Amino acid sequence: MNLNLKNTINRLKDENNNLKNELENTKIIISNLQNQNINNNELEKLKEEIRLKKNIINNLNNELQNEKNKNNPACFRFDDIIVIKFISTNQKINNYPIKCLKTNTFAEIEEKLYKTFNEFRETNNTLLCNGTNILRFKKISDYNLNDGDTIQLEKNE
């Protein structure tokens, strides 16, 4: 499937480049014809051709962008992915890393943690980072956490 998408993208890029070249050639022709004082009808036809070529290029660019977006919905910028480490006050969790996005909520990350450490699911836990109480439905970016930061989990039974 990726090969088909790459082929489609490459084909669209080639078409786009060909149309750009045609547009440049048309501009050169128009420039030359203006210097030769051609009549307005021919000039208007060439201007219309340029407008049509620009529309085709814009449509191809939009189609290319749509293909990229449609087929890569899970693409993220590398800088948006961080690893947060967890420790628990009872030492059952010791520097357990979880990959996440800065746009994730703490509830999403906490769920990943509880998949591995199920015993903490049944208790009312408090999350702390640098002495600050973490609210579960806030995003990671709200706390300005960085890659490698540690969250302390206090198990409240």
List its salient traits.
single chain, 3 helices, rod-shaped, 49% helix, 157 residues, five-stranded mixed beta sheet, Ubiquitin-like (UB roll), 2 domains, 18% strand, alpha+beta
In short:
By secondary structure, the chain is an alpha+beta fold. The chain is 49% helix and 18% strand. It has a 5-stranded mixed β-sheet with strand order 2-1-5-3-4, with helices on one face.
Polypeptide structure, described:
By secondary structure, the protein is α+β, with helices and mostly antiparallel strands. Helices cover 49% and strands 18% of the residues. It has two domains: 2-71; 78-156, Ubiquitin-like (UB roll) (Roll). The protein has helices spanning 2-35, 40-71, 106-116, and strands at residues 81-88, 96-101, 124-129, 132-133, 150-156. The protein has a five-stranded mixed β-sheet, with helices on one face. The chain is rod-shaped and about 90 Å long.
Profile the largest sheet.
5 strands, mixed
The neighbouring-strand order within the major sheet is 2-1-5-3-4
Structural class: alpha+beta
Q: How many alpha or pi helices?
A: 3
Query: Per DSSP, what share of the residues sits in E-state strands of 2 or more residues?
Result: 15-25%
CATH class of the largest domain: Alpha Beta
**Uncertain stretches:** none
Distance between the termini: 50 Å
> Helical content, roughly?
40-55%
Q: Which fold name fills CATH's third level, the topology of the largest domain?
A: Ubiquitin-like (UB roll)
CATH superfamily of the largest domain, by name, is: Phosphatidylinositol 3-kinase Catalytic Subunit, Chain A, domain 1
CATH architecture label of the largest domain: Roll
